[in-house]
Amino acid sequence: MPYPPPQAIVQAARRGSGKLHRYAEQKDLEHLRALLADYAGVPDRHIVAGPGSDMLLREILHSFSGGRKVVMPSPNFLPTVHAARRFAARQVSIRLSAPEFHLTPEILLEELEDPALVIIDNPNNPTGKALLERRTVEAVLANSGTLLVIDEAYFEFSGVSFAILVRNHPNLAITRTLDKAFSLAGARIGYLIAGQLFLEGLSSFQSSLPRASLQAAVEALSSPSYMRKNAGLIIEERERLLRETAALGAEVYASAANFLLVHTRRPEIAAQLEERGVLVADISSQLAPGHIRVSVGTSSENDAFIAAYEDIVKNS
Amino acid sequence: MKKKIGLIVNPVAGMGGSVGLKGTDGGSYERALKLGARPVTPARTKDLLERIRKKEDIDLLSAPGRMGAEYLQGCAVTSAVAGSVAEQTSAEDTKRIAGEMLKKGIELLIFVGGDGTARDIYDAVGLAIPVVAVPSGVKVFSAVFAFSARAAAEMVDAFITGASTLEEEVLDIDEKAFRENRLASKLYGYLLVPAVKKYLQGGKECSNTSATAAESKQEIARCISESMDRDTLYLLGPGTTVQAVADEAGVEKTLLGVDALAGGRLVGTDIGEKQILSLFQEFDKRTIIVTPIGGNGFIFGRGSKQFTPEVIRQVGKKNIIVVGTRDKLMKLEALRVDTGDYELDQALAGYTEVTVGRKEILKMEVRC
User: Fold this and answer.
1) Which of A12, A54, B3, B292 has its CA 20 to 30 A from that of A219?
2) CA–CA separation, A16 vs A186, rounded Å?
3) Is A99 in CB contact (< 8 Å) with chain B?
């Protein structure tokens, strides 16, 4: 996120650092859980907090992939991909094809005849596409041998969540994070909105959070208006960045996240942008060379990207 | 106002494929004939012409006889013929007629052939006018080609409605090396094509020979080899990943040809359709193992024309195993088929499983 958190949150983190020789107190952890539950619209008991949603996803793979095949879209959030390769005895990746990057429900559902752990990021990283509709989610959950995890790391930008279904579907879990819209990437707070089967399977999972991070998160969730404002700014800038990059001849895919997938015919584009002082994610390990993921920054950061890309186009 | 469009067909392109030859130029043409090869460009050309929707906007200038005019019967397009050719045609005819058409003011040149034909067209027209390249060779590795005759027809329509153009690569395949089971290619030049990327096939990329890729191939090979049974005839397609499967099975496979494996030993090396169909008389259980071509994703229709529609039908879609390394597959939008039989292509289309590791399957879309 290009915007730092408000000073009140920074101060809260400083206060939390006051007793670094002690573990975070249980009452503070419970307070955070209560705030997260309120934010997610579920009872407290459905919340599991941890040091980053990627860690929670890893723990889920470690705990639940035994005896189940793991089913995921490809491309995908790389830490989840690596964790799946590490822990899964069998893995089925469903390739999303350009230009729509659509996840065909029938192709997903035909994998669920056997016990499965399905992990879908929604919106998807790096395409930015929303992959799931409610009826697909319900169709997946109807398979009693299936556990479904939806990674909603970009929920605050997409506005789409299936958290409400957790109450009535024990085989559903949602992962979320405060890294992005809440501007707390350095605090590393993730959380799970977990159905009963996940809660039972993770009953021995205990994670104490860093004191400073915990206090920052409590303060952020107590006053989330800054987050909503920043998410709104990012969405506006995202659409501007899309228009102006497309006008320069790149193929830019509509996104529901805080980044854009851009396809150029320049395999070296990431390096060329870096030479001009602009950093983007080179995702040629997941898509054809020339694809980059551009995080939406501040207005001036986005202008810098557009200027650098225009310079590359003009000089080639 | 009508667009003046040229048409040149290489009548022998692709003939060597079904009989296991690596090309149809030079002496290979006579050999192909002796082996019972049949021309493939007529069907491709007719498919193309049928599928062009904007025929009323075309003033077609066709090469004569088997190089074009022969296929225009019944085609509702205004046409004239340029030049003359002898019974046996050559690359020089292609270049000469293309040059004549250019002087007569064509705005687009459609050609039907393979990489060799693409090089001849490049020699004749360069970047003077755009082309639409209809794939009909044995290899067809150059990026300039549409992914099928139907896709080529769409590109023609797009040109007529004013599509911009872009440059695509023409590859120079070392034909001698190819016949000796080695793939060596380099960039020959660029041709202009209508900028409708979704109809372009993409150029073949070289195999990844890194240590990581080699390990991946070995892992895939072990997985496939362990699942093989002694009663099944395995038809092994070209490519280094399939070659790794053969290595694991303890046999020495040709890199660029189709070999047959049964009972743990090779029962056919660098075989064509005729030998494959003959083997089918001995084996009821048959499996094809193929790997997508890097850069364009073709599993049938490029570099493995020995897998004719008849062969593929007799094996059956469920007995086709696709293997590939992650690094190759991650660069592909989808897998592709272009067997020459559109009904079969449609039957093969949809999603298929690709074995990418001992524990991992990638489900990928197959497009036609």
Assistant:
1) A54
2) 14
3) yes
